[in-house]
Design brief:
Elements lengths: L1 E5 L8 H18 L3 H11 L4 H4 L12 H4 L7 H22 L1 H22 L11 H14 L4 E8 L2 E8 H18 L11 H18 L33
Antiparallel strand pairs: 1-2, 2-3
Helix pairs in contact: 1-5, 5-6, 5-7, 6-7, 6-9, 7-8, 7-9, 8-9
């Protein structure tokens, strides 16, 4: 289930979202340009290797906390990068618009660090470098769902290679997405294996984003009222349809 579009009106250009996408792209281009041995060393130093903090490697190869930040700007391949940046592009602008650029940067980094910490604590002996922006973006999804629960999302569900488009409320999308992370996350407990999806990074990032949203959201007095024509296709500024119930945000 891939998000395609949302209905929340924005007033300001998403400068931070654009910047994050650009930084992630540049970091990935640098990463793929490294020769194999240099790439292995680069990932060991700047991706997140849990065992260097909470496992046996901490005794022989300790690390400073830098990878908890740098890992969220690295990716494992073009598909990994594209899916993450597309998801950030869908959910990030509305969140940045409501938090403001400065708070959004702090929020994004906080969720990314929380995601890395959750992954490392759930897999303390793993020596596989974890990398990707998905933990921080999971926090953005959690924030979006909390601020705009009744907003409508258009999502793509591929059926036998045929893309079908559906409309779904943001809170329903978030609940389904979160369930698809928790179930395999619980099943992976105790498996220090070899890689794959960092389920607990997604869980930790989402929970962090959901919990801190009320602390960072700008007060109504600092955010002017939307004009009615700032909505699209008959939607109110918070993404609800005309005639829906619930407060404006």
């Amino acid at each position: 289930m891939l998000p395609w579009a949302d209905t929340v009106a924005r007033r300001f250009p998403p400068i931070v979202v654009w910047t994050l996408i650009g930084v992630n792209l540049l970091a990935f281009l640098y990463q793929v340009g490294l020769p194999p041995r240099a790439l292995d060393r680069f990932l060991f130093d700047f991706a997140l290797v849990p065992s260097r903090f909470f496992g046996r490697l901490s005794l022989v190869a300790p690390s400073d906390p830098t990878p908890f930040v740098t890992n969220m700007f690295l990716h494992g391949g073009w598909l990994h990068l594209i899916v993450n940046m597309w998801t950030l592009w869908i959910f990030g602008p509305a969140v940045e618009d409501r938090l403001g650029p400065g708070r959004f940067v702090l929020f994004y980094l906080f969720c990314g660090v929380a995601a890395g910490l959750a992954h490392a604590l759930a897999n303390p002996e793993s020596v596989v470098p974890a990398l990707g922006a998905s933990g921080a973006i999971a926090g953005v999804i959690g924030c979006y769902a909390r601020m705009f629960p009744a907003a409508r999302l258009v999502v793509i569900v591929p059926i036998l290679f045929i893309p079908l488009f559906f409309e779904i409320r943001a809170i329903v999308f978030a609940a389904i997405w979160f369930a698809t992370q928790v179930i395999p996350g619980l099943l992976s407990i105790g498996d220090q294996a070899t890689g794959g999806v960092a389920w607990w990074a997604h869980i930790g990032g989402f929970v962090a984003g959901w919990l801190v949203t009320p602390l960072l959201k700008r007060p109504a007095s600092a955010y002017r009222h939307h004009y009615r024509d700032e909505g699209v296709y008959g939607f109110l500024p918070d993404g609800r349809r005309e005639g829906g119930i619930g407060p404006w945000t």
